[in-house]
Design brief:
Blueprint: H1 2-12, H2 14-17, H3 34-38, H4 45-51, H5 65-76, H6 98-108, H7 122-125, H8 129-137, H9 144-147, E1 156-160, E2 167-174, E3 178-182, E4 188-192, E5 199-203, H10 207-213, H11 218-228
Antiparallel strand pairs: 1-2, 1-5, 2-3, 3-4
Helix pairs in contact: 1-5, 6-11, 8-11
Length: 232
């Protein structure tokens, strides 16, 4: 379970919570989080992973109950205090194949990005390959749009009530029961949700990045990073 959880965590969680679960690109330290401390086998972590925490910038992650249990087993395998192998930083993360990364970029990324356009010189922009890798996986660390505090792309939402005009704004919070949005004048409106009423449309600039998070293999990530650092 720990080995399976390690692989799932590496693809879905490490870019925000750090490879050692002690916090990373905006994500909190999981080893000291009360929910994780109270959790036994993933039962408390499960709803957070599957539903996300939009108000805190965490998107929902499409993992099964068994997969979340594996991730929980991996996180629970860390020691909270002292020094252990989880704190050993590898000398470099550039272990991928740049040619394979270029081919992956052309097949999965080139429809939206260009190394001669928006990504021109990206390899020189980030001195630390790890920062480049985290940014590549999810620009803004998944923090900016939903909670509004991370500087990343903003997630907006359109709400169309059963009676009344459509309301547009920045997404503040969404779950199965309510949706809250910030309007242009600085005020907030909250709508109760009952199934598909009102109609809610999310506009997430990072939607394709989030979709890829569940599809990347470790080799894809390493290869893509190895290629992007050469784009200078």
């Amino acid at each position: 379970m720990v080995e399976r959880g390690k692989a799932l965590y590496g693809v879905n969680c490490s870019f925000c919570h750090g490879s050692d679960a002690r916090g990373g690109e905006g994500g909190p330290n999981l080893l000291r989080a009360q929910v994780v401390l109270d959790d036994q086998n993933g039962e408390l972590i499960l709803p957070i992973v599957q539903n996300g925490r939009p108000d805190r910038g965490m998107p929902p992650i499409n993992l099964t109950t068994a997969q979340v249990a594996d991730v929980a087993a991996f996180v629970h395998s860390f020691r909270v205090g002292g020094y252990d192998i989880s704190r050993m930083t590898p000398p470099t993360i550039l272990v991928g194949n740049a040619k394979a990364g270029e081919a992956y970029f052309k097949s999965a990324c080139a429809s939206c990005h260009s190394v001669t356009g928006d990504l021109k010189g990206i390899g020189a922009k980030y001195a630390d390959p790890k920062t480049l890798q985290n940014t590549m996986l999810l620009p803004g660390g998944g923090r900016g749009g939903r909670g509004g505090g991370g500087g990343g792309p903003v997630v907006t939402v359109s709400v169309t009530p059963a009676a009344g005009a459509k309301v547009d704004g920045r997404l503040v919070r969404i779950d199965d029961f309510i949706v809250t949005l910030a309007l242009a004048d600085g005020t907030q409106r909250t709508f109760r949700r009952d199934g598909d009423v009102p109609k809610v449309e999310l506009h997430d600039p990072l939607a394709k990045h989030r979709e890829l998070l569940g599809k990347y293999t470790d080799n894809d990530i390493h290869n893509l990073t190895a290629y992007l650092v050469t784009v200078k």
